């Protein structure tokens, strides 16, 4: 007997801080990529399509879908912000 099916998986791909469109508070906005995988004996084998992107507010939990182009821009901005933050942490304290 062969057991097959599908399963959805979510992966966090980026985080930025800005005002939520739903609640209006400034909080972390997390971008998740949702993909459906073909499973064989409950193990994911290969994904179906490109998946979809969902933006979730860390404050209110509200979710909204995001087109792929917007998600790619969000990911690039998130990586740029993370690099700037890491560069700021490695600088010696001022006045020393």
How are the SSEs ordered, and which strands pair?
Elements: E1 4-19, E2 26-40, E3 43-57, E4 63-66, H1 68-90
Antiparallel strand pairs: 1-2, 2-3, 3-4
Fill in the keyword field for this structure.
1 helix; Zinc_ribbon_15; alpha+beta; four-stranded antiparallel β-sheet; 4 strands; 96 residues; single chain; Zinc-ribbon 15 domain-containing protein; elongated
What is this entry, summarized?
With 96 residues, this protein is an alpha+beta fold. It has one helix at residues 68-90, and strands at residues 4-19, 26-40, 43-57, 63-66.
Report on the structure:
This protein has one domain. A hairpin with a 2-residue loop joins strand 2 and strand 3. The protein has a four-stranded antiparallel sheet. The protein is elongated, with a radius of gyration of 18 Å. It contains one helix and four strands. With 96 residues, it is α+β, with helices and mostly antiparallel strands. The mean pLDDT is 89.
Overall 3D form = elongated
H/E element order: EEEEH
Largest sheet: 4 strands, antiparallel
- Give Rg in angstroms: 18 Å
**Number of distinct beta strands:** 4
Q: What is the number of helices?
A: 1
Low-confidence stretches: none
Order of neighbouring strands in the sheet with most strands: 1-2-3-4
Helix content: 10-25%
Main structural class: alpha+beta
Span of the ends, CA to CA: 70 Å
Q: Can you tell me the number of structural domains?
A: 1
Mean pLDDT: 89
